[in-house]
UniProtKB/TrEMBL annotation:
Its cofactor is Zn(2+). Gene3D superfamilies: Carbonic anhydrase. Binds 1 zinc ion per subunit. It comes from Paenibacillus anaericanus. Belongs to the beta-class carbonic anhydrase family. This is carbonic anhydrase. Keywords: Metal-binding, Zinc. GO terms for molecular function: carbonate dehydratase activity; zinc ion binding. Zn(2+) binds at residues 38, 40, 96, 99.
């Protein structure tokens, strides 16, 4: 039986048994927070538990490395939607220890693309079109640097309303311990931290 078939069979039982009822909430984040974090599978349950989050508490946006590299890309758009349309009042950029984006080897990844059938013609066409793959596939030297860089990009975004704290945190992938790297309240005048 294929994995997709297994999922669909499980889902029928999940719906029939009304197991979804414990997850019912609305689209607005109860704790008024938006989180950008890594897609690393170790964080799937660990991060919400470590932050005392339940279903419906936060908007969680995941990508490789919790990095926002394009100020007008889909991750930043999602943050702006969370703020303007879904009432998020704080943003958390949360990286993690042992992240694969730390010192990502773009040349190795490009070679893997070749091995999986992406032709040099396609790679050259992209390069000649102005897409610098080595730069685009670049990670960061260490996790804290990636967090700080992304926090700065968000804070300086021209469409970000004033008064939104942008925090940066590092979560330990094994223990769930959180380290505050950037306290977004420090940028807010008149707020008690």
């Amino acid at each position: 039986m294929s994995q997709v078939q297994t999922i669909l069979e499980y889902n029928k039982k999940f719906v029939a048994d009304k197991e979804y009822e414990q997850y019912i909430t609305d689209k607005y984040p109860e704790k008024k927070m938006a989180i950008v974090t890594c897609m690393d599978s170790r964080l799937f349950e660990l991060l919400p538990k470590a932050m005392n989050l339940r279903n419906g508490d936060a908007k969680i946006i995941k990508n490789a490395g919790a990095i926002i590299s394009q100020p007008f890309g889909s991750v930043m758009r999602s943050l702006l939607v969370a703020i303007y349309e879904l009432n998020a009042e704080e943003v958390y950029i949360i990286g993690h220890t042992g992240c694969g984006m730390a010192a990502l080897n773009s040349e190795h990844m490009i070679n893997s693309m070749r091995e999986k059938g992406i032709s040099d013609d396609v790679l050259n066409t992209l390069e000649n079109s102005g897409i610098k793959l080595k730069k685009w596939l670049r990670g960061f030297d260490n996790e804290k640097e990636g967090i700080i860089r992304t926090v700065e990009l968000v804070k300086k975004h021209p469409l970000l309303p004033s008064g939104i704290p942008i925090h940066g945190m590092l979560i330990d992938s094994m223990t769930g311990e959180l380290e505050l790297i950037v306290n977004g309240y420090n940028d807010q005048e008149g707020l008690d931290v």
